[in-house]
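Title: Prediction job returns without error message
Component: structure pipeline
Severity: low
Priority: P3
Assignee: unassigned

Description:
Job completed but the reporter wants confirmation the result is attached to the right record. Sequence as submitted:
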Amino acid sequence: MKKPVKQKAVGQLIGPLTIETLANGGKGIAREQGRVIFVAGAFPGDVVLCRLTKEKKNYAEGEVAELQQPSPLRRTPPCPVADECGGCQWQQLPYSEQLKWKQQLFNDTLTRQAGVEPSCLLPIVPAAEELNYRSRVQVKCCRSSEGFVVGFFRPQSRSVVAIQGCPVMAPALNLILSRLHESFVDSPFASDVSQIDLSIGSDDRLRAIVHYSGRDILELTSLLRSLAEKHGFAVGIQVEHKDSLRMICGDEDLTISVDQPEIFLNYAAGGFAQINLKQNQKLVDYVVSAADLQGAERVLDLYCGMGNFSLPLARRSKFVVGVENYAQSIKMARRNAETNKINNAEFHVLPAERSFLSFREKFDLLVLDPPRAGAYSVVKLLQQKPISKIIYVSCDPQTLARDLKFLLGIGYIIISSQAYDMFPQTHHVESVTVLKYCPE
């Protein structure tokens, strides 16, 4: 009879452990007496002492307390605080290794959890740049013993790791952050600035939104206006929620471009745009190619945002209906259609699942680009009202696998599924899956 593993207290050190592989979510996997241990900050080949952070009957979670023998896969990370910051998980791996593991984890998830045939899985699309790619970022701020600090939260913490700059951010955003940091360090505003949102568009225009809870709005406004005018960026103050945003200098909207000839998409502060603009262009091009529209098709784009896929597809189809439950995004989608002179696309503020059954039109193509939670509430409805072709854009392989398993069970087949590395230095991956309805 197998002896049960004696549970250890959270905080206790165990090891040495040899890391065997990586798990979805980016943690290393080791085994202790047959039990799986997930170790944050560890990589295949590492030998570590592990501090337990979570204890369960069949597995445990922990973090590296001491790296006793580093893996030969490791490199010196580009960022000096990579081991402390929660923003990136895989900077310690060379980019070629990151791609290898992303491909393997993506393929394993879809084949094991959804039964996807390996022959349907295409090679991952690498990013053009492993650094300096991030076009949007939320920088956390606080006053500490070190003074006014800007940076990112530690993993599983609200403690801010101080940075001088971030190597995955666009260089122009690092420059703005440096200017704002210098301005706040010795100012009376420092204790009341909790976050700075930084963004850059395809045309290199810049925007900063300062989250402020203090009372000296007029004085802060004067400081920020002077700084923005001197260094050429738009700036606003947000005092509570998104609706409280007030622009001080410059335009609130930024622009990204997709498709050829270019479609220019504006998005407001608080709206969604992909953080890797070059990869987003590749993603849109692939979706357009996979759609293979001939001009007579009717397209339903759920979770459409500001029209990232809707408007390029509208150019090639009879009409497109875009649906999003965030009113500001639909407002921008309508404006983007008008600006780009695309008049065969309509947009609605509705929950995706409710809209799906409410439209009387018979659609030829369904595009899904849901948040991390996936689109299960929608794919269940396809059993009642199937659409002949689906293009599913996902940012989470786990929820994608769950949804694909259901679709495969109701008569869909997978034509292809391909991962895109939108987020180098992290474990995250985007993907595009193309399905066709083939009932028996």
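Comment from assignee: result matches the submitted record. The chain has three domains: 13-69, 101-128+255-437, 136-200+206-250.
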